[in-house]
Batch of 4 targets.
Target 1
Amino acid sequence: MTRHPDCRLVAALLAGVIALFAAALLWGETALDIPAALHDLFAGRPTIGAIILGQLRLPRALLALLIGGTLGLSGAVLQGYLRNPLADPGLLGVSSGAALGAVVTFYTGLAATSALALPAGGLAGALLSVAMLIGLAGQGGTLTLLLAGTALTSFFAAMTALTLNLVPSPYASFEIMHWLMGSLADRTMTHVWLCLPGIVAGCALMFSTARTLDALTLGEDVAESLGFPPGGLSGARTRIVLGSALAVGSCVAVSGAIGFVGLVVPHLLRPLTGHRPGRLLFPSFLGGAILLLFADALARLIPTSSELHVGVLTAIAGAPLFLWRVIRLRRTGS
Amino acid sequence: MSAETGGLSAANVSLRLGGRSVLNDVSLEARQGEVLGLIGPNGAGKSTFLRVLAGLRQPDTGDVTLDGGRLADLSPNRRARQIAFMPQNGGSPPPMDVSDLVSLGRLPFGSDPANRDAIAQAMEETGTVSLKDRPATALSGGELARVLLARALAAETPYLIADEPIAALDPAHALSVMSLFCALARKGRSITVVLHDLTLAARFCDRVVLLQSGCIAGSGTPAGVMTDAAMRDVYNVDVRRVEGAVIPWRLVRGVDGKI
């Protein structure tokens, strides 16, 4: 039941992703001879151009694409499953868990011992919160899931605040504050490899729920009668919770918390996909990638005394987008 | 009634919810080629029983069988291709176009080439073709009820189970939907509907099952089940009869003592 407008939308979004990804590689503070740098990169020659392209710009662009896509996708999946347009990947408490895990590595000084300690701590926090979420929400319904997510978010946020409160050196608390704002600066291919398995597995689980999400638009009884039981071990609920938690946890572990992408992107694309939640998934992945690639390009290129954090930019951009939706809603009543 | 018979059968089904017995030893058989009406006052357990019959809820005891095999043993997709379920219309619909909403009924069939014809026919039968490009949120209650029925019919399953499908319809549309059910039954499908309109139940159902407090209070032809005494006992109303149809006419005593 795919329609041509979907193909056109996906093609347009894909073109946007490719253009912004290429721009992220081509543009930066340092002017590069791109063909020469590419040549050196593939030949394995460690020239300045090859290092800037392969070790600075490529991982950053890849992370923007993967993390933006994951946040957009998980927002679309959660909004579809919970049938609540205000659902957001942060809702399940996994982002807060990942943030706490990372903050603990700052507190304990582990973050200073190895570049990997910080994302590994974030990943451990994310996995712990996934286990707690599944333990708490179990086979309950959507309300149980929301309550469990809210409880975990509050708990982890409180623990993060406590850690900040007790942190021994002002320098560490400054580092934590900066990390919590969300950024893609100074990430390497190691960060990409670290978050990739969780993102791939999580996104695959989330994409597999597309038809169940369509069936769920008329309620759980109808979905089940159409052959898509939302509960149970193989049901959509388990795949959504596990998938979004794994993928988003992996993202937050390497980038810090980046808000609003998961909330805003599905909102903007929903009217273009006929309000079918299943058809919204892939466009939301691409839309999230576009938004984060664009925001990160702004973060790199806007001249400020210290580089802007991309998480701050998405938050700044997200609020007016919602205001625009409110104004439209009031005008059209729809 | 045995669990070994063909059709869609419930045998000795009992269910407790929140410590209260909702269904108590209920047995019935939905046969192909007939319209089976499930009637009874509010709270009699009709909707719960429909969910059990559709395989959406497991009873505490008893069993539901489809053509002799346990319904619970069928894969969700096989079951969805056999039984279409239309719940009571509640809550607001998703803001998708009517044709998209009806096409949800074909989800169990993936990208089957027959989807397009099945959707077109279901919309034709329910008189919803003219609504196809309207968002479901802009429909009246009656229009939405017909669209939701089209969604259920689009699956072209041998068994259709519908919970109060005509509750929101005006008399003309209610008559047309009941006539459609009869026509579908004549073509060999099995239609099981919960009805509160006793007049239409008596006119259009081949058989009716009367539920009271989770137990079967009567089962058989409308004339045999919907007797004056049964209506008075179960519904607390006196009825009048016009050419075989039953018309609720007067309360016997106050409902719950409040009127």
Note: Residues 192 and 304 of chain A are 27 Å apart (CA to CA).
Target 2
Amino acid sequence: MSEKRFDPKLIGEFLNFSRHLAEAPMKVSVPHEVEIGSTQFDVVYKEDKMRMLHFKPLTEKQVRTPLLISYAIINRYHIFDIDPKKSWVKNLLEQGFDLYLIDWGTPSKIDKFLGFDEYVNRYLDNCVDFIRNESGVEKVSIQGYCTGGTLATVYAALHPEKVKNLIVTAPVIDGWKDTTVVSNIAKYFDADKLVDTIGNMPPEFIYYCFSILKPFEQGVEKYIKFLNNVDNEKFVDSFLKIEKWLDETPPIPGELFRQWIKGIYQDNLLIQNKMYVGNKHVSLDNLDMPVFTQVAVGDHLVSPECSMPLHYAISSTDKILKLYPTGHVGMIASSFSQKTVLPELGQWLKERS
Amino acid sequence: METGANTDYYKKTAMFWSDMIAMMSSKPTTLSAVGPLRNLSSNLKKITNELTEANKEIVEFNNFLIEYYKQLADTWTGAQKEVSSKVTKVPQNEEGAEAYKRVWIDIFENNFTGLFDSKKFSENYNKLVSTELDLLKRWNTITDVMLKSANLPTKQEIEEIYEELHNLKIRITKLESSKKKD
């Protein structure tokens, strides 16, 4: 009978992993105690649960046209400023932009009737008007990320006279072309029943959707990697911040969720120019301002096929579509975004501001 | 008797007796009970009805849940078989362990993403959620009956207040903006 021999290195690896597992609670902070967001801001405008943040400038001279970021309706805005070295916000401030950001807040049961109309024609429009008054400019630049990109697109189509430049980062545009697991669930989802029974879309359901996106890489491998790196302070810090951010998903207002699932994913109204918000027709032909569409090739939340059609559907003659070899979050919070995405965006925006 | 016929039989029996009891006890109840208890007895029929209907949905929910776990289990088994067929010659050393982990994760990721991307998964999953929501609706109705008996605002009444507040906010916003324009 042959004797089985294990590589001593392999046994060493195993023992090391067990040691990390045992020592992790002593070495690592409690995830919920981790502080995220480091750039200073003032809350300059509030309406219901929504707040608009104005970041303190980091340069003496600033670009004339202010930039407003419309964050997504899933998770919180902190990902834009999660780590000083990977901060989208800090980078733009260092490039001299006058930066505002919308935090949609955490909707409660009373907010279940809020839909596209309130988000676009009230909250977003009031934020834009506030900035126009404060800065004395006619138009502002708007950047929308993920579902915030869709809101920004709808806003720019309904209020083009107030938008100087539009930047959309991984926006949800063509629901039928989306090839992600999220769209597969959304296709057959009975949004009416959920909203009529529960009210708001509960965060637990959003966590479920996240958990089936990359169940083994995100659900297994990243934790093994984390345990193998408990001695690496930088790695642990970054890991815990991202985990905390992922864990803080607010509910989505029921009406907005219903309109989203039915209008964007099931009936695909936006790209077909059939969408109405607050009784107003949303025509992508109205997007005649400079438009920068940023798409991540490895995006598993909003597939490139879902975002890219915007570039071809608008009337603007000054438009650019950029595909980046990264993922949904990598496009806004990574070393890659600092080195490539943000410098390109900054240059493009400065030339038009 | 088939399951459907069974359910109908039990439903009819339950409804018959709850009606009979309500009729038989209505006079003494009216005389003796004041306040919430009287409401509760008259609403007992609604609760019985909801519970009987919920039985059918519990069976459906269980079927979809079984199918959900079956899909997961089948995919797991398929992926594991694929892994086993590919890693027979991986050496048992540090590099081999790393290679095994990579192969395992890649194959499981591919197989499960394939499942979550499929029509059969989405259809079953959404039916599962839908039945769960049906059950929740029944529970909400029962809760509303209880709240009504206790003379408290029901969920539906609270919803109406929320809607009223929402509409008021819209009206105020419109008034404010027209005032600004003036």
Note: DSSP finds 13 helices and ten strands in chain A.
Target 3
Amino acid sequence: MDFGTIVEILDSAVRLGTPLLLACLAGLFSERAGIFDIGLEGKMLMAAFFSGAVAAVTGSAWLGLLAGVGGSMSLAMVHGLASITFRGNQLISGVAVNFLASGFTVLIAQSWFQQGGRTPQLSGHARFEPITLPGASAVKDVPVIGPLYSNLISGHTILVYVAFAMVPLTWWVLFRTRFGLRLRAVGENPESVDTAGVSVIRLRYTAVAITGVLAGLAGTYLATGLAAGFVKEMTAGRGYIALAALIFAKWRPVPALGATMLFGLLEAISNRYPNIDLGVVTLPIQFMQAVPYILTVVILAGFIGKAIPPRAGGQPYVKER
Amino acid sequence: MEKTPKWVDVALIPFLNLLIAFVISGIVVLLIGEDPIKAIKVMVSGALGSPYGWGYTLYYATNFIFTGLAVAVAYHASQFNIGGEGQATLGGLGVALVCLALPWPHWSVALVAAMIGGALFGAAWAAIPAWLQAKRGSHIVITTIMFNFIGASLLNYMLVNVLRPRGAMDPATARFARETYLPTFHDLPVIGQFFSKSVPANISFFIALLACWLVWILIWRTKLGFEIRAYGRSESAARYAGISPVKVIMVAMLISGGLAGLMAINNVMGQGHRLVLNSVEGAGFIGIAVALMGRNHPVGVFLAAILFGFLYQGGGELALETTIPRELITVIQALVILFTGAFDNMLRAPIESFFVARANARKEA
């Protein structure tokens, strides 16, 4: 395996890790505010469809982005309504959101485009195009740094850079602003936030809305950046892998970057080498695909450092009377 | 404090929630430019209008009874088992291994062995998440989701690399011997005349009914069931009463996984006669909707399973006869879960306060 191949695999890992990263940060906001969200998959799928559909019709990836975020946001509000206003079971609501997206997207796609539940192939400005960073072609031939800069760092779509920028931004918002402090408090001990005179309901809705936007970006990237259009069930479990990454990262933004890129790397490796021969045993592709889930179970089991979720997670807040 | 009448809780509120789910589904059908009334007609005639339709409706319902009961039993112990899909997948593996292992002389012997195989594999797949929840406090919802994916990968591996007959292209096991085929409704005395030859509904349906009854006995007529319900209502009270949380979680989840695994006698042994990829077809998830709608009671689960069997078969016909894709059923399923589960308080709160106010007014008068 030469250096060029390694750069290629890493590049592919970044592409595949980006939707996971966006979805993981989406889940981070919601769960830090005490709203469990197993509906990331559904929100991404909804965003993937609406971004793909609107981009196909208008020929603009940016309008697609807007529609994608809108689609994701509508499901985020359903989840908010169920878990905050009606104090329902957040897990059940998440399950419902996933099925709603899974059925609805195919139904509408078939009705609008009659292509068996997919959108037309996107091309030109309907997709987010790769951005060549300044100097990428100039340093291309410099050894080591050249390929790293021009192939790995440069040449991604805007959404990839947005996703990476979201990591420090999320950290800053959560740990350096008053809003972030309150958001974390509402996920640990909503009574204290309420006592301080801050609206629990409003905070939680805000968190759920941020989740909607970020999951919308994740889905939009799938349909208009990674692929060229929406295909039925195109999220293919990525929402759950993002959830796994969130637990893996113990609900912290910087480790979330590490976890999602690790899972992206695993996918990139298994795409390139379906069966890995370790000499003693050959790892089949099915094992590689299951690794993120197995790792998550191991982490949850607490054998490698314990993952403790926000304390008030999953519980509706009932104001004392 | 006055309580609301029981019929409101078990009949009126589920009915209204279901009604809302269907009305919204109708609006969705309108939105995609189709006629909802026509859609209902196609579904009813497709699912109930012929022996063929009935046979499929009951076949699907059998799957959903098993997975619905699986969710319900776990739910009584306040465990949300979202892993029915994976447990049923593994159950399929167990049933297939049993069917292929020996030259079975008669289907009845094979069925008993297959039931044990399916239930054991299903229970085993629930055992690890259950143990992690009971001993290490790992959230069962997340671990069972992860086990669904791991189970899918495992089955994929087994079918592609181990069980696929030499020379075969598609990832599936060999066909089972004829002797293991379960009698279909057509083969049965008396009721056989009502069903056509090709129906997949088979005697697993009666085993599903038996399972409903046994679950009822277990939950409401045994000490173990009492412990499960007590723990489900209040962990601290149950602990104080000397009930072991580890035991309750483990037992409830093993039974739950076993029930989900048992589903495979219907879809693998009764219908497919071999194990293919994705033979569960989402039945594990539909079990969630079925249990929610059936209020986790076996009778409710049975009725809800019949309804979803109808929807599933009707939806298939809908896709054949109209331009509405069968994913409409997924939307209906989602709306049923949403309204009977997550949005339950939307109607419950106002309706309950209405009945309580009425009862109070009567008392004063």
Note: Chain B touches chain A through 50 residues (CB under 8 Å).
Target 4
Amino acid sequence: MFEIRIEGETVYLAGRLDAAESDLANAQIAPLPGPITLDCSRLEYISSAGISVLMVAYKRMIAGGKGFRMVNLMPRVKNVFVYAGLDKLLGIE
Amino acid sequence: MVRTFPRQMASIASLVAYVREFLEQEGLPSDRAFDLDLVIEELFTNLVRHATGSRGDVDVSLESTPRGVVLTLREYDADRYDPTAAPEVDIHRPIADRRPGGLGIHLVRQLSTDFRYEWQDRTGLITVTMKEPF
């Protein structure tokens, strides 16, 4: 179960962002003009498919001179970014 | 504990349920689920995306052993596709040079102590021994 909700510049992610849900996430995030703050306080799981969506969004924001932040990650979700070598990147706070 | 899953992204939800059933049956803590979910998803979705021969179902097994939890994925009538041969991802490159491709197998390597592939008589077998939690 994955949910995404957008309020202004904040994108709220909840549940499991896996390969079955990454197209939905991308469809919601790709049109956003930015800047983007991703609130991950209710994001329980992410795989490489989900990370790919966020990497694409991050690069698009940076290329356009816009900000991209990820906040309130659960430790186990943040660990995936550590394993991926992306914890110091992608604007993770 | 072997279970057969249709080779499609929609099987991920069933794989998640299967992991929980396995942990409960083996009396293992539920916080082991995250890493197992991740490794199974990365390998299973690779088989969905990269299947060049078989489009058939995939047999997935989980077993608790003294070396740790051992996961296998078996496909039949399959062309050879060796995920263990995927090049290493350089995680120290700047973000501008990073590409998402290969990240899934990188995560599998990070979370396992043994990762191997066998292919014989058009049957492909991936075997992963999971790292034990600290």
Note: Helices of chain B lie at 12-26, 33-50, 103-110.
